[in-house]
Design goal:
Elements (H helix, E strand, L loop, with lengths): L1 E2 L2 E7 L1 H18 L6 E6 L3 H8 L8 E10 L6 E6 L9 E9 L3 H12 L4 E9 L12 E5 L5 E2 L15 E4 L1
Parallel strand pairs: 3-4, 3-6, 6-7, 7-8
Antiparallel strand pairs: 1-2, 2-10, 4-5, 9-10
Helix pairs in contact: 1-2
The structure holds inosinic acid and magnesium ion.
Length: about 170
């Protein structure tokens, strides 16, 4: 597959993604039996994962989405991550974050901190993909679909320069 100047080859077939997502959902259904966590997907990349995951979730759960905006703070001269679009009151709410990929972990770390700061009673993470060698922050990730190498991937919601999200499989840079 070619996107702009880059060539990609298949990494995870559509069928394998779907099987794994069903398994992850089963684990969540078992772990949260009798409870009703709020599922929060992180846009844009997670839209396919959330859609497919939620079809297998049998808990009486709500689903919501947030975006994470990064900007540079002049005072701290660091990158600040702001959550956009969370309208629910999450005070004393159990939360399961649904994310497409965790790379360095900085995005996820900021999301977890801010959800906890708003009073969430628990925050668990389910990520379809994890790049263990890229992880720079110690994160407790409860549900991981696939651990992958440090190569750039696209498809199934993930993009290269905005393109490639509309593919049922995942491809890695050649
Ligand atoms: P982190 O903050 O470094 O963990 O990066 C997480 C975000 O970077 C993800 O939500 C993706 O949007 C993006 N990202 C990281 N690795 C890839 C990749 O291989 N392909 C596409 N997007 C990626
Ligand atoms: Mg993402």
């Amino acid at each position: 597959m070619k996107i702009k100047d880059k060539s990609f080859k298949i990494l995870i077939q559509e069928e394998d993604l779907q099987d794994k997502i069903a398994q992850m959902a089963e684990a969540i259904n078992n772990d949260y039996k009798g409870r009703a966590p709020l599922f929060i997907g992180i846009l844009n990349g997670s839209f396919m994962f959330v859609a497919d995951m939620m079809k297998h979730i049998s808990l009486p759960s709500k689903v919501s989405f947030i975006k994470v905006a990064s900007y540079t703070d002049m005072k701290s001269s660091g990158s600040v991550k702001e959550l956009i679009g969370l309208s629910e009151n999450i005070f004393e709410q159990e939360i399961v974050i649904l994310e497409d990929i965790i790379d360095s972990g900085t995005t996820m770390s900021a999301v977890i901190d801010q959800l906890k700061a708003r009073g969430a009673s628990s925050v668990a993470v389910a990520t379809l993909l994890l790049k263990p060698k890229a992880l720079k922050i110690n994160l407790d990730i409860k549900y991981v679909g696939f651990e992958i190498g440090n190569k750039f991937v696209v498809g199934y919601g993930l993009d290269y320069d905005g393109l490639g999200r509309n593919s049922g499989a995942i491809y890695q840079l050649k």
